[in-house]
Amino acid sequence: GDSVTQMEGPVTLSEEAFLTINCTYTATGYPSLFWYVQYPGEGLQLLLKATKADDKGSNKGFEATYRKETTSFHLEKGSVQVSDSAVYFCALSEGAGNQFYFGTGTSLTVIP
Amino acid sequence: NAGVTQTPKFQVLKTGQSMTLQCAQDMNHNSMYWYRQDPGMGLRLIYYSASEGTTDKGEVPNGYNVSRLNKREFSLRLESAAPSQTSVYFCATQSPVLYTGELFFGEGSRLTVL
Question: Cβ-count burial of A78 within 10 angstroms (0-12 exposed, 13-18 middle, 19+ buried)?
């Protein structure tokens, strides 16, 4: 069945450091891929998405490229800020009912 | 524009008690979902509703029931709460774009069962 595996956390970085959070997936078809972010005490909100191979999603300085050959959708940001501290979830969606499959989440803390 | 509203935000129950989590959306979306979030396990789908009048089981439906009262509202009921149901519950709706539709989440309902 479909699944998403993402990098274990927690991750702690200094402000302005480079961020990579790895995400790989297993899917039977051609899924859409997503990154969601959850700030403390809030629900999840969409950060970026990509709907087909080689697409690059981007938002707020974050980027991720849909790599079909490596079944990956790694999240990157060149210079993190304290306000980026949150939990990040990789997800995919395909098939009837538009079900989503989420990774377990990666907690990021950025220190000044 | 409230988006997705969940009530209550916090609840403490004793084992065996019942309760209903309410979810309402003003986004005019057809599809609605209930997830639970547990440490180290990500989000797991409990039930979903593709449209008014239809509901389907997700990955972890045991111990729960749902009602899609109308297009706006989708409630989750625990008939006899158990400590294993201690979790954070999220309601979500989905924009109508097939396969690529974004999920919109409520702020969550934090439930503790003693």
Answer: exposed
